[in-house]
């Protein structure tokens, strides 16, 4: 699983999610390395386990000839309180890392396989993620 070697602070603020102010990604919005990419359509927080699950699906379907790129990295720690604990007593302990994804961001890229196989692979990987995605190709 992906996680940073070191973070400056153990616990971060969660940040607000305001649906009225729809942000869109400005970085990582073009297919740069491969021939096809998986693009986010909605906003979500993607955890390291979900990224790893999608990556495994891509690796399994591409075989030895295909190449893949993961364009996101989970560097934001998230916390969770233990079950059956009453309110108060501070913030929970860090349990993992996540990345905040805005619409337009390219998540994964593939190359080295036929177009049909690349599209099918990316659709399968998109089903492992908690957001709506679309398959895009290099222009």
From TrEMBL:
Binds 23S rRNA and is also seen to make contacts with the A and possibly P site tRNAs. Belongs to the universal ribosomal protein uL16 family. GO terms for cellular component: cytosolic large ribosomal subunit. Pfam families: Ribosomal_L16 (PF00252). The lineage of its organism: Bacteria, Candidatus Adleribacteriota. NCBIfam families: rplP_bact (TIGR01164). It comes from the Bacteria. Keywords: Ribonucleoprotein, Ribosomal protein, RNA-binding, rRNA-binding, tRNA-binding. It comes from Candidatus Adlerbacteria bacterium GW2011_GWB1_54_7. One of its GO terms (biological process) is translation. This is 50S ribosomal protein L16. Part of the 50S ribosomal subunit. GO terms for molecular function: rRNA binding; structural constituent of ribosome; tRNA binding.
């Amino acid at each position: 699983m992906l996680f940073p070697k070191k973070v400056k602070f153990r616990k971060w603020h969660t940040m607000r999610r305001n649906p009225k102010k729809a942000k869109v990604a400005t970085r990582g919005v073009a297919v740069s390395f491969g021939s096809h990419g998986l693009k986010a359509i909605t906003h979500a927080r993607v955890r390291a386990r979900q990224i790893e699950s999608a990556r495994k699906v891509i690796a399994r379907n591409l075989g030895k000839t295909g190449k893949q790129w993961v364009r996101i990295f989970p560097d934001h720690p998230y916390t969770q309180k233990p079950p059956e604990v009453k309110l108060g007593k501070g913030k929970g302990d860090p349990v993992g890392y996540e990345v905040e994804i805005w619409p337009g961001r390219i998540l994964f890229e593939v190359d080295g396989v036929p177009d049909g196989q690349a599209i099918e692979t990316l659709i399968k990987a998109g089903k492992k993620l908690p957001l709506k995605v679309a398959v895009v190709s290099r222009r």
